[in-house]
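User: Could you go from structure to sequence for me? I need the amino acid at each position, not a summary. Structure tokens:
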């Protein structure tokens, strides 16, 4: 039907998770970068798949009513902002539609979604900036941000999202590295020293923390770099300088070890009336103005009266926990990062709150253990998980605990919808959905949901035996390719037909063929990893196969 390099006229009717526009030609969807909803464009076909294609925009034939000039000259190359050509008002509506569509399509929920809470001045809002350091093809030093869908570093000055004084800090470091010929890290060879520059800013004090991520144990002439950064005061005032040791062959930015070179090694910042200690490795929401609105919404949904027992899962440095502790009887927080838990404990003391307890560990391990050992039944559970959402064991334990209210704070509305489907099937009702724009000019949106336990006057217990189920009908609900596509979209994982067959077999589904068996009895097959098994199980639930 279509061929590569063919020119098409497309009307952009939607946008993807990475900010590409979606237009259809004879019902066949094409993804076109640098377009916004409402544009009519001429595009050239660059790649074709079985059910969709990619295109490159050639000309804007009719601009969208919501199209605006991009404020940043690097907007189309840099991967940091995806919506700079879309008016801020339309961004907020796009994000509301995105949340509503995910809830309906993935979660099967037709619930009202409130208008997104936006910002009056949506620029220079980030209190944390992570800048990769590398070399170009000629071996020259480069500092900036990664281009979209790559690790090519785009040189960037005066980022409109980061702190206003970031450029002075970065230029000081660039000059230092160049003068003393300190090599940047090369991802391809694994050689070189400086990997990233992490800059944090306290919006309360205006002070900065600078952390140099290195592929080694020591930065040459580090004392001189500290002197030069301190000399920038009063604009900016660098109150802490440290090194983060990351010698692993990984895309993870920070390593586990931090070496403090100057200052306390942390910043102090506030949200509302609460003060927090923020270390280099701490999770702390990047938009202070919107964080206050987000947490006030979560606190309002929790509807605390002063006596409630509360769990805060994925609590980080205790930001939400301490907001809740001001109104709750007792709050327990769980976080996998040990330094963050130490910060949470220190933050509780700093704010005079003694009605808290924090646990180090995975939520899917700590929560079931405490529930089983102490028969703990909280009144309210608050969850703020990473992008991948909650583990099934966390959701199942929450259902077993039967709190009267669950407040779910999410940074990914797709995994939110998946988890809400699980919770509503377990006896909860979604009462309120409030998106908050934490990341203007990007496709990301934070969402706060309130779930209440449905009241029931009678219970019916039904025993279902697997051998009585119509497994053939279940198997027909989704093909292997459909399951693979679902897993890739919602977890980012690629799974094989073999792994799907293994999981289906464990669920009692009889495979019609024998391709999930080894060719010989002595042959060893790779077994499906736990993370992929969880993702496949979720796909089987989505297609109502289990």
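Assistant: Here is the amino acid at each position, in order:
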């Amino acid at each position: 039907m279509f061929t590569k390099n063919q020119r098409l006229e497309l009307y952009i009717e939607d946008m993807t998770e990475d900010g590409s526009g979606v237009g259809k030609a004879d019902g066949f969807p094409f993804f076109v970068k640098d377009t916004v909803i409402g544009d009519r464009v001429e595009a050239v076909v660059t790649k074709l798949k079985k059910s969709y294609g990619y295109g490159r925009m050639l000309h804007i034939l009719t601009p969208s009513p919501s199209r605006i000039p991009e404020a940043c000259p690097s907007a189309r190359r840099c991967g940091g902002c995806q919506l700079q050509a879309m008016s801020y008002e339309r961004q907020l509506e796009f994000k509301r539609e995105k949340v509503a569509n995910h809830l309906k399509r993935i979660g099967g929920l037709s619930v009202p979604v409130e208008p997104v809470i936006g910002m009056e001045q949506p620029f220079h809002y980030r209190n944390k900036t992570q800048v990769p350091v590398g070399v170009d093809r000629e071996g020259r030093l480069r500092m900036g941000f990664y281009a979209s869908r790559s690790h090519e570093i785009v040189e960037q000055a005066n980022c409109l999202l980061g702190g206003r004084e970031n450029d002075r800090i970065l230029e000081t470091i660039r000059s230092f590295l160049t003068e003393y010929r300190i090599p940047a890290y090369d991802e391809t060879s694994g050689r070189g020293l400086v990997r990233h520059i992490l800059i944090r800013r306290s919006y309360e004090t205006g002070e900065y923390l600078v952390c140099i991520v290195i592929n080694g144990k020591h930065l040459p002439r580090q004392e001189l770099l500290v002197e030069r950064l301190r000399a920038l005061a009063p604009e900016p005032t660098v109150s802490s300088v440290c090194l983060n040791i990351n010698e692993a062959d990984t895309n993870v930015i920070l390593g586990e070890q931090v070496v403090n070179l100057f200052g306390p090694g942390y910043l102090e910042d506030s949200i509302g009336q609460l003060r927090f200690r923020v270390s280099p490795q701490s999770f702390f929401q990047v938009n202070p103005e919107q964080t206050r609105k987000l947490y006030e919404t979560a606190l309002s949904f929790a509807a605390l009266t002063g006596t409630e027992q509360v769990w805060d899962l994925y609590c980080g440095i205790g930001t939400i926990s301490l907001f809740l502790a001001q109104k709750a009887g007792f709050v327990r927080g769980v976080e996998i990062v040990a330094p963050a838990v130490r910060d949470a404990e220190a933050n509780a003391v700093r704010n005079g709150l003694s009605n808290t307890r924090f646990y180090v560990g995975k939520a899917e391990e700590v929560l079931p253990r405490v529930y089983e050992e102490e028969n703990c039944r909280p009144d309210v559970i608050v969850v703020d998980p990473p992008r991948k959402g909650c583990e099934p064991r966390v959701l199942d334990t929450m259902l077993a605990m039967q709190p009267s209210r669950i407040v779910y704070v999410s940074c990914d509305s797709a995994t939110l919808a998946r988890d809400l489907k699980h919770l509503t099937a377990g006896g909860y009702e979604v009462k309120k959905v409030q998106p908050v724009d934490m990341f203007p000019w990007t496709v990301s949106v934070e969402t706060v949901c309130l779930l209440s336990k449905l009241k029931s006057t009678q219970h019916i217990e039904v025993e279902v035996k697997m051998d009585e189920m119509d497994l053939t009908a279940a198997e027909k609900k989704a093909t292997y390719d459909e399951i693979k596509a679902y897993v890739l979209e919602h977890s980012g994982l690629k799974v094989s037909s073999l792994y799907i067959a293994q999981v289906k077999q464990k669920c009692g589904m009889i495979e019609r063929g024998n391709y999930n068996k080894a060719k010989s009895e002595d042959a060893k097959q790779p077994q499906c990893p736990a993370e992929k098994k969880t993702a496949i199980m979720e796909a089987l639930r989505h297609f109502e196969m289990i």
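One structural detail worth keeping in mind: Residues 88-105 form the longest helix (18 residues).
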